[in-house]
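Section 3.1: Structural characterization of target chains.
Under the original work plan, the team committed to producing a structural model for every single-chain target entering the pipeline before any wet-lab resources were allocated. The record below documents one such target. The sequence was received from the expression subgroup and is listed exactly as submitted; it comprises 89 residues.
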Amino acid sequence: MANTRSAAKQARAAVRRRARNRTQISTVRTSEKKIRALAKAGKTDEAAKLLPAFQSQIDRAAKKGVVHKNTASRHKQRVAALLKPAKKA
């Protein structure tokens, strides 16, 4: 429990921020799961169509500080790598 009025206000603000951040993270995770599921099922064309929206969402989350920019970059890279056709040696 907060000891001062300002601490109580910060606690209320933190609850609001947490709710906002959780919705953004949830949206990003859902779209990443959809892409990974499609890629696993072999539907890389459909997954590739969802990739720009996913990248936009995670970039927006990184810009707002919901996730770190390097974390966003890593997720984007790994999802994009799934969709690249396997190179034959």
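Residues 5-40 form the longest helix (36 residues).
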